[in-house]
Request: fold
Amino acid sequence: MTDATWVVARRRPALLPRATLWQGAVLAVAALIALPVLVVIGVALAPAGDVWRHLGETVLADYVTNSLILMAGVAIGTFVGGVGCAWLASMCDFPGRRIFEWALLLPMALPAYIIAYTYTGLLEFAGPVQTGLRDLFGWQAGDYWFPRVRSLGGAVVMLSLVLYPYVYLLARAAFLSQSICVLDVSRTLGNGPWRTFFTVALPLARPAIVAGMSLALMETLADYGTVQYFGVATFTTGIFRTWYGLDDMNAAAQLATILLAFVVALVAIERLSRRSARFHHTTGRHQDIRRFRLKGVKAAAAFLFCFVALAFGFLVPAGQLAWWSVLVAEKEVDGRFLTLVWHSVELGAIAAVLSVMLALFLGYARRLFRTRPVRVAVDVAGLGYAVPGTIIAIGVVIPFAFLDNRLDAFMEATFGISTGLLLSGTIVAVVSAYLVRFLAVSLQTVNAGLDRIRPSLDDAGRSLGLGPAEVVRRIHVPMLEGSLLTALLLVFVDVLKELPATLILRPFNFNTLAVRAFEMASDERLASAGPAALTIVAAGIVPVVLLSRSITRTRGTRPA
Amino acid sequence: MENRHFAALFVLALGAADLAAPALADEVNLYSARKEDLIKPLLDRFTEKTGITVNLITGEADVLLKRIVAEGKNTPADLLLTTDVGRLYRAKSEGVTAPIGSAALVAAVPAQYRDPADHWVGLSLRARPIMYVKGKVDPAELSTYEALVDAKWQGRICIRSSSNVYNQSMMAAMIAADGAEAAENWAKGLVANFARPPEGGDRDQIKAAAAGQCDIAIANTYYLAGMVGSEEAAQREAAAKVAVFWPNQDGRGTHVNVSGAALVKASRHPDAARALLEFLANDESQAWYAEANGEYPVRPGIGLSPVLAEWGTFKADELNLERLGELNAEALMIMDRAGWK
Reply:
């Protein structure tokens, strides 16, 4: 290590060519990651049939307005749920807080379409709740009003319930890493807890909150399962309707490109919000957190707030899944089931590690070289998150098959050997799709972590004689640990839930839990989907708990 | 650090590629839009009898088709199995299929369920009749799909979204039978009679009817069969409240679609693929479709499962299903214009 440091230190005058090399590497990596998205845009460039006039006259307006309303609703839902829970569970003290602290992350393990299935089963006209009400009061159809689950509003609620943990996780990490001194100063200046929250804690945590919300919104834009099941016409349902129904892939790709424009706008908003105020603590002094101890009505209200999020986001749907699992356990759970679990975990782990490594690489590049090409490249690399998995899958299939076929033709012509398809239909293709789709998750999280490390710390470290490697090891690593773990967890859980790309790109005879759950559910055999869906949830819980403990451990906390 | 990991992954990848690469032994590679559960038992039986291994991936038909197109002449796929005729037609139009060339299949499967050029063959039938709530609807009031636009059905019909391919095929059959203009008027009339905006799947329509939200549901029969045999008591009870009515028996017959397969042009195991298709059309397999999933055999003279037998026999629309594929886009546009969500 010392040798390396010495070399780096000695070669500092030659920084420029290295910088160019780095930047070149960043552009190359970003281009590779963006390739599937670019392929889709490429397809979109081909002229579509006269489908557009038809779309414009009939359904396009619905796609736009519904997608916008959906996003606005989920933005509000995840902000209120995520930030509210994060503040209560990390900075206040009330009965049950210790459990909520980690349990509030649980809904993250539920795919949105699965929670949609369970609530529909419970709340639809023919479900137990409405049937019970009718039996109880002797009502008939049309006698009473009951909110329709399968509606735009229903989709907002379903997506908010499973996506608020993204905001919760990042906001909580931000609150916990805040220097308590600033909060204390605020309190001594006479601000109450509410004022302290709104004027000090919230602005300081803004990069993390915005990062969490933009993840939630990108996930919302990419959602297909929920809106399709609810019959809500959004861009994603429109894309597949145009492709599958009207058989016009080019027009479908054009719709997908418009969807991308939404995402670019989202990313731009996030950038703007950060530029207008770049908050860093001026001191790294941390004390133990002294939580606001809530009593009486306030404690009850805090409990209720967290409990509602946990109950509707997790307990109710997981309970329903558990009940279904009991019904079918005998038939569904066997040796093959364990293979499903292994496949899911294997894919999740590989993708999570690679994705975090890539995010670190790109994140550091963005930090070290604040040039426009690098910033744009890093942003572009994150676009895949908002693109529906099926579209990504097509964007992966086409270049991989092209490469394989070219290589095959070359080998055939030169050596007379046919290599066939080397990469298509292997887990390399699947993992590539995950990286494209979920790089934004690790990137956002790592960037939010890097942003909390003041650049002045680097300078201080360097002026005290630390080489770049040591700055990373002795300053960045300890400060980034939480963010890296968060990123690993988010990608891992996302991969467990990912469906369309897995479905299309996996090798022969290779099933995962999500594939199993989806096949049962889409065949309208919800009960049979129970065990696989429940296992996705269970597999997601382990890292959630580990992560939660490690975040709590990163700083001593005690109730005031 | 990162480079080393990438190198390691690449080596891993090549290893995986080796494992996944189709060997030249006796095997068939199947890209299937039928869910694993609804085909694997038959494939296992095939392997048991012939020693030919079947490799399977499942997924959405259109995406599997795109994969076959992209993989080109190196595609490992031998057969594309779909759950509707429109996708078989589409595979043929993409130019990635070839004539099957099995005299046994031509002899066994009726002409309307086969491609005239022999690129695809139907393997099971999916009927889409009218289902009504017993006691609320007198079956004598029902006659044809066309008659469902009558004002007496206002607010009484449940059917799923027009995004669903079975509705698109039903609409295409309507265009083929009555012409585009009449079909569009029919779609508008039907939408006017909806009990609620379309939501959920076919089972949900049946459940809504059983619970009293509507009196008529249009759904594929195998969903009802699945509810009859469900693990959930509520589904069995709902299924018991509805009965099947076979429409258009005096005319063109009840609308049917097929689940079927096309032979991939670049197939490396065409003989094994043909053997598998013939196996899927034999008596045993045909009876299995009815037993396991409530689908109808594509060949006449196969015994029905007790559930299907109870619904009686029916006359199926004899339109060559190739037409449904040709008319699919037009059907969807008509439904868009009619405001069928």
In short: Residues 139 and 442 of chain A are 51 Å apart (CA to CA). Chain A touches chain B through 77 residues (CB under 8 Å).
